[in-house]
Design brief:
The protein is α/β, with parallel strands linked by helices. It has helices at about 5-25, 30-50, 55-80, 115-120, 125-135, 145-155, 160-170, 195-210, 220-225, 230-250, 290-295, 295-310, 325-330, 345-365, and strands at about 80-90, 105-110, 135-140, 175-180, 185-190, 215-220, 270-275, 320. The protein has 14 helices and eight strands. The structure holds 2-acetamido-2-deoxy-beta-D-glucopyranose (5 copies). One 2-acetamido-2-deoxy-beta-D-glucopyranose binds next to helix 10. GO terms for molecular function: acetyltransferase activity.
Length: about 375
Amino acid sequence: MVGGVQIGALAACVVLFVPMVMAGWHLSRNKMLFFGCSLFITLAVCVHLTPYFPSVSDFATSFSSFVVFDHRDSCINLVNQIIWDVKPTHRVVNNTSFTPNYYYEKNWDWLKSRKLDACEFQKLDKSDASDLLNGSWVVVAGDSQARLLVVSLLSLVLDQERVDSIRGDLFKRHSDYDIVIDEIGMKLDFIWAPFETNLTDLVIKFKEKRKYPDVLVMGTGLWHMLHVGNASDYGVSLRSLKSSVVSLLPFSPELGTDGPVTGSVSIRSPHLFWLGMPMLINGMLNTEEKRLKMNDLMWHAYDRALGDSKLLRQTGGPLVLLDIQSLTWNCGPRCTLDGMHYDAAVYDAAVHIMLNALLIESHQRL
Ligand SMILES: *[C@@H]1O[C@H](CO)[C@@H](O)[C@H](O)[C@H]1NC(C)=O
Ligand SMILES: *[C@@H]1O[C@H](CO)[C@@H](O)[C@H](O)[C@H]1NC(C)=O
Ligand SMILES: *[C@@H]1O[C@H](CO)[C@@H](O)[C@H](O)[C@H]1NC(C)=O
Ligand SMILES: *[C@@H]1O[C@H](CO)[C@@H](O)[C@H](O)[C@H]1NC(C)=O
Ligand SMILES: *[C@@H]1O[C@H](CO)[C@@H](O)[C@H](O)[C@H]1NC(C)=O
């Protein structure tokens, strides 16, 4: 550290010698005097103001934390950038009950680019996923898309036989399902909530009980499109969902630090996700009513309503998008039988997107 005395001595030298050197460059005496004075004043001001500015190390710290924050944010924005490789398989199929999709092999990975590589996204294996989710309470609420996401999540952390044995209960029409996976102390709830109002009710219930899941995934839209068919009404429902979610958050931007205080030692914000709507392939939808009401025009109106509701992180809202739209669009018609429910590969990818987002967030929070 350079002490005040040394700085003073240095300043004196500069004030003395710089004008003398300049005198060699044929400056007039007045100009020299002017230079000398202004140098002196500048140095004096600098020396006296230095203590009032944050020290260099403070500055470096705040800068590096800014960089970390920025990295975290930009990686969250990139986490949905998945590319597909869907190609025919050469499997011999001698069984007519196999679906045409069986003939295609679906592989996915994150897009290769410098920015994405820096985020180090990875497909988590069973043990990594178990570590990450160890001891947590996960709630997935929504329609059949949410149910398919649950199957993919369970397939990642459980053996296939156990998933197959669960499948029957999980797919009981229009019902809730819950399971505790003792090995990793994870509790998983699926809540049948086909409408946005169902989600809002759920969030209000969490708030009343003051018990929040660690991870909450929500997603609806298809039922509203089919049974209500009014995009602006969908937008209204999403906005009220958003305000109930925001009031749930212990540290929401709108509430500042004056938010609800539960009195517990650590109030963690739950990690919140929105499960986007899939692309609908109109010609493949399985009823005339669906083909009529769930057309492209309507789909885009609903998508706009979601954007306008500012529910998603990318529009300043609280929920991180799991971009089923881009996953299904890129996987394409070979990845669906009914133009609405897609193959496991799509929801598997969504699970890995979610886990990577959790990894990014938990580096900061946990
Ligand atoms: C069907 O194909 C499998 C292998 O893919 C083979 O093991 C099996 O014997 C075949 N069955 C018949 C009836 O051809
Ligand atoms: C065809 O495959 C399905 C699904 O694997 C199986 O349930 C069914 O028994 C098979 N049928 C025949 C005739 O092998
Ligand atoms: C989960 O965490 C507990 C302690 O909190 C530990 O004993 C257990 O081994 C962990 N399980 C896994 C699968 O990581
Ligand atoms: C979901 O909301 C709809 C419309 O508000 C309601 O009719 C239905 O009973 C709710 N379903 C559940 C499971 O709460
Ligand atoms: C659509 O929903 C909005 C908002 O709820 C409502 O004002 C409007 O009347 C509805 N339009 C139709 C055609 O029902």
